Amino acid sequence: MKILVLGKGIANDGMVLLLEQKELEFDYLNPEEVAHFDYTYVIKAPGIPLSDRIIQGFIKKGIRILSDIEVAMLLHPGFYIGVTGSNGKTTTVSLICHLLKSGYDAVACGNIGYSIGKAVVEHPNAQIYVVELSSFQLECAQIDLNISVLLNIHPCHLDHHATFADYIGSKSNICIHQTPQHCAVYCDDDPHIQTIIRHTEAKKSSFSADKSHAKCCLHQDVIYYENKRIFKLTEPFKGKKHLIEDLLAAIGVVSLFAKIKPSMIRKQLKSFEPIDYRMMPMNPYIYNDAKSTNPYSTIAAIECFQSVFLICGGYDRKENLESLNDHLYKIKKVYAYGQTKDKIYQYMRKHDKECCVFQTVEEAFCQALKERQNEVVLYSPMFASFDQFENYMARGKYFNTLFQKYVSSK
């Protein structure tokens, strides 16, 4: 058996560690380095689309394409919780892991920045792996997770997936191969997820911020699970719909474990710290939401305020901005930068919103500071970071340095 690990990067670096540990024969190559198709399996890096010429060559020869999560589950059997969604994955994974640690040895990994391959090598005895799974990882995955979690689905990554239907199909792979002894935890407020969930044999457990019949639901700022009072919302969750939905999902998951009692959940939540660069307050008026990579994430941020001066821009993945229409009344002015600045400008002008364009975040931030008039300045890019930054963390750190330079030092 000969394995090709295709595409160098964080995810497949972890696969290399795992394959070496299992003493399996493999080549580790980028697509342009592939000289033949004589392999039994191909482990595809998440960023390589199935439409790639080399991938299509392997598929035509009947060679199985695997994802990192599938390989990890095959080579290191264990208890796996997988989380996917267009938004909220990282926060939900962090919440689930934090809550589980009150009774289990749990490890957060996957698209969160710590590859699943590296996680199982470095934590071979972990009781539970909580894995953030992107549509890229799921598009060729045939996995039977112990627990799958579906948060929400909006049009995203249409530069990678040919159509929105393909994107939905990739997301659905998190649960459609599950067997009846396992469980799918899902958002009952999302119509796309309602369709997907009909096609799994897994036991179903719903959560909802709006529907009281869901197994895990919200009523008058109190979260209930199977009609039992679990948690009354406090900071940092209160008033933040996106965080509440992530918390509902997390409580819906950990409540499946008899060992985790409501009192343990309440105690653990007191020490939970929100992830960096997701609605991070720099001061009462300036927020760093650099993790926002699509319009729906920015909408969730905007909805936390009465009005904002919005700084946004980045790498275009064919996002449709029309989803912003019902939320424009909260935006006082837009400061657009980067590759998508003209796209943002044209959309905002079409809707009679004041917008100015800049080359860089720094220029946009400086202008917003001059004009904000005691209003909130929200840095929520709405697009991927790749036009000017390596990833969202790099641009989040950069915005922090701008805050230190132009605000803290004054």
Automatic annotation (TrEMBL):
Pfam families, sorted: Mur_ligase_M
Domain of life: Bacteria
GO molecular function, one term: ATP binding
Domain Mur ligase central: 83-245
First-tier enzyme category under EC: ligase
Subcellular location: Cytoplasm
Pathway: Cell wall biogenesis; peptidoglycan biosynthesis
Cellular compartments per GO CC: cytoplasm
UniProt keyword annotations, A-Z: ATP-binding, Cytoplasm, Ligase, Nucleotide-binding
The enzyme's E.C. designation: 6.3.2.9
Keyword Transcription in record: no
Record-level GO BP terms: cell division; regulation of cell shape
Claim: ATP-binding is one of the keywords in the record: yes
UniProt-recorded name of the protein: UDP-N-acetylmuramoyl-L-alanine--D-glutamate ligase
